[in-house]
Specification:
The chain is an alpha+beta fold and 88 residues long. Helices cover 19% and strands 31% of the residues. The longest helix is centred in the last third of the chain and has 13 residues. The mean pLDDT is 79.
């Protein structure tokens, strides 16, 4: 899945099933060696965009554990993995 000519690629994403201001998404990226977790944070600003929180991790397991912990903080949300076609 990783192509060194491309750089960072999305590996997997989750969505909480909500729309608008309540919508949350979490992404895992890899560059083939390192992993990074990203998530939208807070309400939208004047331009309609929410800031993106980023955290580098050393391994795929650490990235998945961090994403799982983030989803667990919002247990009422209907977290689901997004189909690969939606995240590319």
């Amino acid at each position: 899945m990783y192509d060194p000519a491309v750089g960072w690629i999305k590996d997997v994403s989750w969505w909480n099933g909500l729309r608008g201001q309540e919508q949350r998404r979490i992404w895992l990226y890899t560059d083939g060696t390192l992993w990074r977790v990203e998530a939208r944070q807070g309400p939208s600003g004047n331009n309609g965009e929410r800031p993106i929180w980023r955290s580098p991790t050393g391994t795929e397991a650490e990235a998945h554990a961090l994403a799982a912990a983030m989803r667990a903080r919002n247990p009422g949300d209907d977290w689901r993995e997004m189909p690969q076609a939606w995240i590319e």
